[in-house]
Amino acid sequence: MAVYTDVSDAELSAFVARYDIGALLSAKGIAEGVENSNFLLQTESGFYILTLYEKRVNEADLPFFIGLMDHLAERGITCPRPVRDREGRALQRLAGRPAAMVTFLSGMSVNRPEAVHCAELGRTLARLHAAGADFSLRRANALSLAGWRPLCEQARDQADSVSPGLRARIADDLAALEAAWPRGLPEGVIHADLFPNNVFFLGERLSGLIDFYFACNDAFAYDLAICLNAWCFEPDGSFNITKGHAMTHAYEEVRPLTEAEVAALPVLARGAGLRFLLTRLVDWLNVPPGALVKPLDPLEYDRKLGFHRHATSAADYGLMR
Amino acid sequence: MAVYTDVSDAELSAFVARYDIGALLSAKGIAEGVENSNFLLQTESGFYILTLYEKRVNEADLPFFIGLMDHLAERGITCPRPVRDREGRALQRLAGRPAAMVTFLSGMSVNRPEAVHCAELGRTLARLHAAGADFSLRRANALSLAGWRPLCEQARDQADSVSPGLRARIADDLAALEAAWPRGLPEGVIHADLFPNNVFFLGERLSGLIDFYFACNDAFAYDLAICLNAWCFEPDGSFNITKGHAMTHAYEEVRPLTEAEVAALPVLARGAGLRFLLTRLVDWLNVPPGALVKPLDPLEYDRKLGFHRHATSAADYGLMR
């Protein structure tokens, strides 16, 4: 839930008047994303989402995110499409913050993905990777291997207060990943945060992707490893190999994985698990007292890492060869 | 801002399936009202607002609120219209809470009302009072004179910590109001909370009223007095008699006030001022540490009471005779 910045209806009306989308008819602050302030706007021409970028988004990255959505939409990936004002600008300022308006996408999040959803996701992820191939801007992944040690150091001293032995488990994970992290895998633009709440379905069909604010350049197979973490575990912490198979098989129908990617999958999955464990742990340890926003449970990823630590091959994830 | 209860998209889809409004296409938690959880739903037939009633709403009052919106809408007052499921029920349960779906209204709130908006509001308020005349349910006003002393006692001991002398000013107001509160004025259904954020405009035309969850039976002129407080003061605390005249004049074009109502206006306005001072003061003194929701400033009403305490006739409010 997130509306961090109050903007009056009068300010919003004046803002919308910069665009050729008709007058503003309605504006509602909406609870979407955890990083930014979002408003659902109704104008005479339809519905739009206005995002005000709060401090966790680096303003210098916005041209990458905005440009990427445009680039992907032009190549048939259904995602929010930046709207340009009469002077051709997509990136604006409002209430002292960077702001952008995008088209509204219908669709519902699936909170308990089934194998059919995992297959849809795998297929779309591969199409996303292909569509991003000729995108000209670059953005490094600040939350890959090199970013994990600083997060680890931030959380280390309090880790055992969250779960006994967590500090040692994280240290072991990090050491193993630093020793085994693959280099030279096929790379390009990845979404890097394609959790179920960022994927819309209408019925069993995937209808759109949102929230590109972690997108960056990194190994394609790492993006797949993030999705295996986010979509294919059951609430009890067990990995559902049927869902893993559905996702990886559908991915490979569009973009076959190289042998190096297949071999790297267990270490990539462990890395993705550690990445979300660490960021959630840091958030968990830094939640202000009395805050209304409940942080996500880091231990969900400690349990998932319990699986990754013992996985030996891509077959453990349902990827058949 | 308010989304207090999380409901998954799957639960919302199942809920919407009870209605004959098409499948759910999108659901967004929205920041509207401060008492309840609200979702903006898009279905195949259009947009709707789903409200989950949180603990500050008394469930026994819901048939009054739901019935009133239906009653008013049938009589041409533009307000959210309760949607009934296939079995004819408007009042439901969802996620353990009472819930109701209503139609979505376009429109924008005016944060700096001008005289033209005050006139529109006055006219619509009188039409609302006329439209409610034959509504069969009743609901007492828990926040009228008899409710103020308990609030006063709750806030008294800490009042001077908010503003020096506030305790004494409140005691004087309450004593004066208990001595002079009018009886026997024309009564009926009043909105009782018609602040600018509960009134929608499209351009300069009033397009709808929302949030009927303080509606009750009480003196019509008291509702007008609430609106004079909420709409006709300037940010510096001064009363704008031009706006007061516009509002009362437009009201009287639809429903002329009786001589008793005119005579009572200053005491009613002071009472309305005290009512919002007291509820805001109690909220202010009870805000949990670290809460994200900022309570409304009680002293805004202390300043408005500074005007009411010295008003001697309806003419001070712009009501000409």
Automatic annotation (TrEMBL), chains A, B:
Gene Ontology MF term list: homoserine kinase activity
E.C. no: 2.7.1.39
Q: What are the UniProt keywords, alphabetically?
A: Amino-acid biosynthesis, ATP-binding, Kinase, Nucleotide-binding, Threonine biosynthesis, Transferase
Classification via Pfam families: APH (PF01636)
Keyword RNA-binding attributed: no
Which SUPFAM superfamilies does the UniProt record give?
Answer: Protein kinase-like (PK-like) (SSF56112)
Pathway per the UniProt entry: Amino-acid biosynthesis; L-threonine biosynthesis; L-threonine from L-aspartate: step 4/5
Q: Does the keyword Nucleotide-binding apply?
A: yes
Reactions catalysed, semicolon-separated, are:
L-homoserine + ATP = O-phospho-L-homoserine + ADP + H(+)
Kindly indicate where the leader peptide sits in this chain.
none
Q: Provide the Aminoglycoside phosphotransferase domain boundaries.
A: 27-257
Recorded hits in HAMAP family, A to Z, give: Homoser_kinase_2
Family under the similarity heading: Belongs to the pseudomonas-type ThrB family.
User: NCBIfam families per the record?
Assistant: PRK05231.1, thrB_alt
The protein depicted here goes by the name Homoserine kinase
Its ancestry begins with: Bacteria, Pseudomonadati, Pseudomonadota, Alphaproteobacteria, Hyphomicrobiales
